[in-house]
Design brief:
five-stranded mixed beta sheet; 35% helix; eight-stranded mixed beta sheet; 13 helices; 20 strands
């Protein structure tokens, strides 16, 4: 069983410092590579699905979160206000109020809908010290968030499209959902009023789940304060379940913010907001990937994708040339030479690198590489150009497969 906290430190991905504070990890170079690659993957997938990306501030006035309902229903998880120039400012606990303001910043037409607005943005939760741990419970979160502004007739289809994005991402990352949960309100006063809107949102989310063909179970007491949600649950090696990805259909915030668009009839109509996150927080996603793969990330996500291993000093110049060729193809490659130890020790040290290329005197002279895969397979001795091309194709295709037959 893998613990992402131990692995993260052993592999030099992230760490913490008491002077920075609990629940505030920092990313080391290899961890930053994983994070950046994951973020770019999500941005690319979103662009292909018709999303437009924005940036919004991590601060907002208290009045903003009073309007959204966060101050009344979510205050215990927010940081206290900061007094700035006679105004109370707050670190945002969520991105949706900011996106609602961007939507209403100008007149919108029905021709713009569905308007898919995405952001990889920071948000902040005042987590108790006792629940903080590694990357799974942190106080500063980088969230893969998006909000789709659409008509009620489009909402179920947009939610189903979000579920499809999530399913594809999980396949590419080599992780799986343990279950899908339709999270409904429970007792108590933590939910906004509006029974008719709750019922309508729930019906649309059931339609999205049914259209996606995924099994799900309804659970009371797990809804967001403003509406029901679809939670995509994952389970860690210790059997602990958590939510990684979500899809929510929200009638509440468009009403609170007075959002409108001009319909085909020339009248003003209220849109629906579909909240969705493909990989949830980057922190929790990386934590789960570490524990799922034991640090052996899918080839496209690995911090180092190829290590070239010259047998002796005479082959080092050629090894560096191979790395330059790999880098020109967009691969992350490095040389591990004789100064780093015996060949056997270097191979063991690179055990999590997807591709190893041993370079002896014959290989260096003939433009060849003796190829080894992380899983122990040895495809044989290949021309360097052919090997690099095949690795580049495998990385570009994403997914978890290390090698495809020629």
């Amino acid at each position: 069983m893998h613990d992402h906290r131990r692995l993260g430190r052993e592999l030099g991905l992230f760490d913490t410092d008491p002077l920075m504070g609990a629940g505030l990890p920092y990313w080391l170079p290899d961890g930053a590579v994983v994070r950046h690659t994951l973020e770019e993957y999500v941005r690319e997938a979103e662009r292909a699905a018709g999303y437009r990306h924005v940036y919004s501030p991590v601060l907002g006035k208290r009045e903003l979160y009073e309007l959204s309902g966060h101050w009344d229903h979510y205050r215990d998880d927010m940081y206290p206000p900061m007094e700035l120039g006679g105004e109370q400012m707050l670190l945002r606990p969520s991105l949706c109020p900011h996106h609602a303001l961007i939507f209403r910043s100008r007149t919108r037409s029905h021709r713009e809908l569905p308007l898919r607005m995405a952001e990889l943005g920071g948000m902040y939760r005042s987590e108790r010290s006792g629940v903080l741990g590694g990357l799974t419970r942190v106080r500063a979160i980088q969230l893969n968030d998006a909000h789709i502004f659409c008509t009620p007739d489009q909402a179920a289809e947009e939610a189903a499209g979000a579920l499809a994005l999530i399913s594809r991402a999980y396949a590419d990352l080599g992780i799986r959902a343990s279950r899908h949960r339709l999270s409904l309100p429970g007792g108590g006063g933590k939910y906004v009023a509006g029974p008719a809107l709750w019922r309508r949102a729930t019906t649309l989310q059931r339609e999205a789940l049914d259209a996606s063909g995924v099994a799900y179970e309804a659970v009371e007491g797990e809804a967001a304060f403003y509406g029901p949600k679809i939670d995509v649950q994952i389970t860690d090696p210790a059997g602990r379940e958590s939510t990684l990805s979500t899809v929510q259909i929200d009638f509440h915030q468009p009403e609170r913010f007075g959002l409108r668009h001009t319909g085909p009839d020339g009248a003003r109509h209220r849109p629906v907001m579909v909240h969705r996150s493909v990989i949830g927080s980057v922190e929790r996603a990386v934590a789960h990937l570490l524990e799922e793969h034991g640090g052996a990330f899918p080839p496209w996500l690995a911090p180092v994708q190829l290590v070239v291993l010259p047998v002796g000093e005479d082959q080092e110049e050629r090894a560096h040339a191979v790395v330059r060729e790999a880098t020109a193809l967009g691969l992350r490659a490095e040389v591990s030479g004789p100064a780093d130890g015996s060949l056997g020790a270097r191979i063991r040290r690179a055990r999590l690198v997807p591709y190893q290329a041993v370079l002896g005197a014959r290989e260096a002279a003939d433009g060849l590489l003796a190829v080894r895969l992380r899983d122990g397979r040895r495809p044989g001795v290949l021309p360097a150009a052919e090997f690099l091309r095949r690795v580049e194709q495998r990385v570009r295709a994403r997914g978890t497969a290390l090698w495809e037959p020629a």
